[in-house]
Amino acid sequence: MNRRFPPPHAVRDLALSEDPLDETIAVPFECGDNAGDVSGVDAKPDDGGHPVMILPRADGSFEWRDTAFGPALACPQVETVAAHLFTTRPWTLGRQGSQDVAWRDIAAAFGMPDSALVRMKQVHGRAVVITDDHQWQLGSPLPEADIVLASEPGNVIAVQAADCVPMLVADRRLGVVSAAHAGWRGLALGVPGATVKGMAETYGSRSEDLVIAIGPSVGACCYEVGPDVMAAFEAGGFGGDQRGRWFHDRPPVLPGNPPMAGLRSEPRPGRAFFDGWQAAIDQLLASGVPQANIFCAHLCTASHPEVLCSYRRDGIAAGRIAGAITPARRR
């Protein structure tokens, strides 16, 4: 049986208005012994005495999960194949950053020991790590890569982000999985396509069998970039039509994602607002993944300071969110 995190506060079980992305929801949550030590989170007690956190409304293809470590986001379509989650700021990783001890919660959320967790030293590239039979231990050197693949159910693979795109992939036919990290550099290098190619070459995955969850990352509503970014995509071989879809002359209005405080309404000369979500989706489509198999949370990390981590908003003080997934049990 595939592991599924219990959905006591599933978004789809709540009443929706005509424009659900403009709503927020309030859910009680428990964070173990650290429940009272969640800095920067608007937590108020509900009638039952539990702290309540205001969560933004994600895309309808995602649901919030209430875990022992804080709220997490999951995509039910991917969840039918492989257990996974995207963490939030209340998790230890979100409050303390990428310290080894903060990653223990990720493995524990899957009911696995620390040694089951495999992650990378992310370098904004497109190198691939294959984790089968690999045992990661706290304090051990991390491989330099931004894409990680796994087929053994005893592994949990994870990427971290604080504005970059975290992407989780599962193969419906084979049960194998991958996790990828892509900032603008990774997207200019084609990380989404490299992930699909890596799964095909390693496991024989077919693009039409892949289901993909794109987690929270900075949206075009808040992401002003310079000419070096636009030049990197041109150098990466992306055509004018594609670049025209990804770069905007003013920040688009994204439902449920308010502009970051202090954001300019128009870019400075030579600059633009970048849509990493659309860039990732388009690259996956170009790799043969069906549109119906791609799910994007459409949550901007810079728009939700109480819930999500953003380097662009908070600078070096920013924590990190994680995207983590474990392979399906073989039948």
Task: Characterise this structure.
- By secondary structure, this protein is α+β, with helices and mostly antiparallel strands.
- The protein has one domain: CNF1/YfiH-like putative cysteine hydrolases (4-Layer Sandwich).
- Helices cover 19% and strands 23% of the residues.
- The protein has helices at 76-79, 92-96, 104-109, 184-188, 191-203, 227-235, 240-246, 276-286, 311-314, and strands spanning 24-28, 43-45, 51-56, 63-67, 70-74, 84-86, 117-118, 128-130, 147-150, 156-161, 165-171, 177-182, 210-214, 224-225, 247-248, 272-274, 294-296, 321-325.
- Strands 8-9-12-11-13-17 form a six-stranded mixed β-sheet.
- Helix 5 runs parallel beside helix 8 (276-286) and helix 7 packs antiparallel against helix 8.
- The longest helix has 13 residues, at 191-203.
- The radius of gyration is 19 Å and the shape is globular.
- The termini are close together.
Brief summary:
This protein is α+β, with helices and mostly antiparallel strands and 331 residues long.
Which characteristics define this entry?
four-stranded mixed sheet; CNF1/YfiH-like putative cysteine hydrolases; alpha+beta; 18 strands; six-stranded mixed sheet; disordered N terminus; 331 residues
What is the second-level CATH architecture?
A: 4-Layer Sandwich
Radius of gyration: 19 Å
Oligomer: single chain
**Looking at CATH, which topology would you report?**
CNF1/YfiH-like putative cysteine hydrolases
For the sheet with most strands, the description reads:
6 strands, mixed
Question: Which percent range fits the helix content?
Answer: 10-25%
Number of helices: 9
CATH superfamily: CNF1/YfiH-like putative cysteine hydrolases
Average pLDDT confidence is: 84
